[in-house]
Amino acid sequence: MSDKILELDQVSKNFGGNHAVSAVSFALKEGEIVGLIGPNGAGKTTLVNVITGVQRASAGRIHFDGLDVTDQRPFQAARRGLARTFQIVQPFPAMTVLENVAAGALFGGAQASRAEATAAARTHLEFVGLAAFADRPASALTLSGRKRLELAKSLAMKPKLLMLDEVNAGLNTSEIDGALTLIRKIADRGVTILVIEHLMKVVMSLAQRLLVLHHGQLIADGVPREIVDDPRVIEAYLGGKFAKRVKEMQHG
Amino acid sequence: MTPTTRYLIFALWVIVLASTPLWAGNYFVRMAITIAMFSALTLSWNLIGGFTGYPSLSTAAFFGLGCYVGALSQRAGVPMILAWVAATVFVAVLAAVFGAIILRLRGHYFAIGSIGLVEVLRLVTSSWGSLTGGGDGLNVPLVQGGPNVVAQTFLAAMVTIMVIVFVVTVLVDRGRLGFGLRCIQQNEDAADMVGVDTTRYKVIAYTLSAMFCGTVGAAYASWTGYIDPTDTFSILMTIKVPVMCLLGGAGTVLGPVVGTGVYMILEEILWANFLDYNRAILGAVTVLLILFLPGGLLRISYKTVLAQLAARFNRLGAAA
Ligand SMILES: Nc1ncnc2c1ncn2[C@@H]1O[C@H](COP(=O)(O)OP(=O)(O)OP(=O)(O)O)[C@@H](O)[C@H]1O
Ligand SMILES: [Mg+2]
To answer: What is the number of domains present in chain A?
Structure first.
């Protein structure tokens, strides 16, 4: 087990006849930033759902931090240090921004009391740059604000592994740069990060390693440079045109 | 409203209700007992329906069960207060078991499942004649003493139960449990993802919301001295309690108390003045209030209302 924080062994998830995830195996090492890419409907969100217990694996085993967590429930995942952000943000809309983060700290981050959770929540809001909005209702935030809130909430849970499901989707360039800086800072704290992204620019600049999912199957696992040269990946996901552009980017 | 203001208002209301024998006649004492009784039921419902956002319609099931457990215990020679405690415990256990099953359902499905329990228990009680007396009902040993002593005893009992449920509500509201329940009410999947053990929290909330209905039921049985299945497992009660809570403000600490007070006083006024149409008028008033005040009476920002009225008057003044 040693330095492997997460290990998937032949994990599958079927919805009726639809094999959303088929026999996927990989491992994440402690402290790594890994990108998970793949076209729409490839099974990325489903994979995160299975890892966090939102959906039950149809087959295979999942180990986290040396523990078999295949049958865990989401709240157990949260308490064990497995946090994730939602592709479609999921705030507690009528609560304040501060209360949203305090919920993460109290229940997932094992803070002893509501007062301590609130205090911890303030530092996390500071960290993601939402301190000024602490007492506003979460529903009043812009999309980029809500994504930051999701991050703060996940951080409050003191995660060992953080899975970011398209935290950058729908953001503008400067907002994305802000988010990238944040993600790097989180990684610097020693948190292992799995980034799910559509934006190649983002994954290429963040990830030390890439996993490529296509029709539920893991078709590649390696360093970003090799991945973009892998003909299977080019064919399945990037498309010839895009791969060429990436190459030009690298040479130019 | 600060918490202290809330507690003060509640304390005043308790004093008003508890002191009725000193300044009012039998009619008002009786009404105070009923208000305290329903307040306890509404506060209980608020824990699952308000805090947790699960529209339970099983109040009458737990009330009725409490009536029968209390009555049967008393008939078997158990002292009155102990019989009430027995009813509370029995109902709590049943609610925990039943809750673990039906709290998997959400929204309307949960509501229907929960009202089903009222019907099932009513049918069982009606049919199990050898134990419950069936449709003939059951007599409960009466409290010794004149009518005034009896009224004062049950006023004290119902007000005490109401205070207990209020204190439980405040403790839940301020603690970890209440915070978790609010997360569930806002977004159950997200609550699960931040580490709230949603199943356990929901079962605890449902059990807490049920057990004091059992106490109230047992006390009611001792008070009236006679119970039957239709009176105790009443669909009207199971609907009235959430309505009162919504009227005052579901999910707030004081809302259930305010809603119950307003509703019951309205009901009395309508009974007295519109003998034929009182139910219809009460229904219409309730629908209007809930439509136009979706957050309940306590959620109105009276400042905003006053500011709007003032603005309107100013505009009228300017136009004239
Ligand atoms: N709850 C569900 N029930 C049935 N089918 C589902 C469910 N969730 C996902 N699917 C199917 O599983 C497949 C994978 O979906 P998933 O959302 O995991 O893809 P994704 O890689 O996250 O896509 P995107 O990039 O659009 O977010 C799709 O075919 C989808 O329709
Ligand atoms: Mg997805």
So the answer is: 2
| Residues A3-12: tens digit of each pLDDT | 899 999 999 9
Among the partner residues A86, A92, A113, nearest to B183 by beta-carbon distance? A92
What domain range is A32 assigned to?
1-81+161-182+191-252
Q: For chain B, how big is the Rg over CA atoms in Å?
A: 21
Ligand nearest to the CA of A50: 1
List the alpha helices (DSSP H) in B175-301. Answer: 176-186, 188-193, 198-224, 229-232, 235-248, 255-273, 278-292
Q: Do A48 and A165 sit in the same domain of this protein? A: yes
pLDDT digits (tens, 9 = 90+) for B46-67: 999 999 999 999 999 999 999 9
Q: Return the DSSP state at B295.
A: T
Q: Which of A90-94, A182-186, B24-28, B160-164 has the highest mean pLDDT?
A: B160-164
Give the H/E segment covering residue A194: strand A192-196
From A15, A50, A58, the mutation candidate for ligand 1 (largest count of ligand atoms within 8 A of CB) is A15
* Residue A63 · residue A6 · CB < 8 Å: yes
Judge if A26 and A141 occupy the same domain.
no
Tell me what the pLDDT averaged over chain B comes to: 92
**Is A172 found in the same domain as A55?**
yes
Decide if pLDDT at A252 tops 60: no
* Interchain CB contacts (distance < 8 Å): A and B: 71
H helices, E strands: number in chain B:
16, 2
Q: Considering every ligand atom, which ligand is closest to the CA of A41?
A: 1
| Closest by Cβ to A90, choosing from B174, B179, B187 | B187
The average pLDDT across B233-241 equals 92
Q: Which amino acids bring their CB within 6 angstroms of ligand 1? A: A 15, 18, 20, 38, 40-46, 87
User: Minimal CA–CA distance to B14: which of B157, B171, B216, B160?
Assistant: B160
**Domain B3-257 listed as CATH 1.10.12:** no
